[in-house]
Design a protein that fits this description.
Distance between the termini: 76 Å
Number of strands: 4
Helix content: 40-55%
Shape: elongated
Oligomer: single chain
Structural class: mainly alpha
Order of helices and strands: HHHHHHEHEEHEH
CATH superfamily of the largest domain: NADH-ubiquinone oxidoreductase 51kDa subunit, iron-sulphur binding domain
Radius of gyration: 22 Å
CATH topology of the largest domain: de novo design (two linked rop proteins)
CATH architecture of the largest domain: Up-down Bundle
CATH class of the largest domain: Mainly Alpha
Bound molecules: iron/sulfur cluster
Length: 199
């Protein structure tokens, strides 16, 4: 009789993994959003209401705030949810999530996001990428790096003059940041959307 193959059990995500997912993030809104998203993806077991319903609602509200469409009512809701989760969660996982949110809520970032800026430039809705013509050497590295065909421009070649300058088509740009990393000349800047019109 042949032996039944041993099925490897998938490793369960725990709160350490949730914390690891936010360790490189700086913006308190992004940190909260990713923390709650990761918590909901597995450690949250759904056994008690303040945690189960609260974390889902918190995620919706945090997404709005990060997308630049949040209002004071959304921040107040996250505060209320965190307070209720701290009080009513039955286990340490729910309480730790509440504490994480409460710490983030103490920073100035929630107010700043309501006013239209993300200090850390991690919430992509608040930033745009732009080519600085004075620094651009027409190498085309950014265009090669862009998977969304969002960069117009012509590479410099020795036998001709008159080039189409490099420019980011904002409507196509998904703000992945690949061009920013690819440009070794510092010719792509990441600026706040509401300041873009001023410079
Ligand atoms: S507080 Fe704990 S037990 Fe209750 S739903 Fe959240 S993870 Fe489950
Ligand atoms: S990578 Fe930088 S220098 Fe090269 S074309 Fe793009 S913006 Fe210009
Ligand atoms: S941020 Fe991403 S999508 Fe936008 S232009 Fe740069 S590489 Fe393309």
């Amino acid at each position: 009789m042949s032996e039944t193959p041993k099925i490897e059990e998938a490793t369960k995500k725990d709160m350490k993994d949730v914390l690891a997912a936010v360790k490189d993030l700086k913006c308190p809104i992004q940190r909260s959003l990713v923390f709650v998203e990761e918590f909901l993806s597995e450690p949250m077991c759904g056994k008690c209401h303040p945690c189960a319903l609260g974390s889902y609602e918190a995620l919706v509200r945090l997404k709005k705030i990060a997308a630049g469409t949040g209002k004071q009512a959304d921040v107040d809701a996250v505060q209320r949810i965190a307070d209720q989760m701290l009080e009513g969660s039955r286990c340490i996982k729910g309480k730790d999530t509440a504490k994480f949110l409460l710490t983030a809520l103490k920073t100035a970032s929630f107010q700043e996001h309501l006013e239209g800026h993300c200090e850390e430039h991690e919430c992509t809705s608040y930033v745009i990428y732009r080519v600085v013509p004075e620094k651009c050497v027409l190498c085309g590295l950014c265009q090669e790096a862009c998977r969304y065909n969002a960069i117009l421009g012509e590479k410099k070649v020795s036998y001709r003059s008159g080039y189409l300058p490099f420019e980011i088509r904002q409507k196509r740009c998904v703000k992945c940041g690949d061009c920013f990393t690819a440009c070794t000349y510092g010719a792509i800047e990441k600026i706040e959307e509401n300041k873009a019109a001023l410079v």
